[in-house]
What does this fold into?
Amino acid sequence: MPTHHTQHSRRFTLEDASAEGEGSWVHLLSEADVHAFTAELVDAVWAADSVDNSASVTQTLIAWQHTTEVYSNPELPAAPTRDHSEDHGPAPEPRGIA
It folds into this structure.
């Protein structure tokens, strides 16, 4: 795996990653997540270049955009830790399955 991106000593900031301006979804990420996003995106770009296929870049962008959608809805990040012990009764029979 290429490591060219590790040779740069410049530190990425939130402003670097959200260069598109206030309309960018990247500004919704924490600074730590911006660093993780940037590293993952750089790796995806290198991988895409090595196989001449940009699908990994697209998938990385989509995944991180969905992450910001979760962060922007205060109920979603808390959902996994919420008490789900209430019993909602038996599950209905699947439709159309013999």
Q: What stands out?
A: Helices lie at 14-17, 31-51, 55-72, 75-78. Residues 45 and 57 are 6 Å apart (CA to CA).
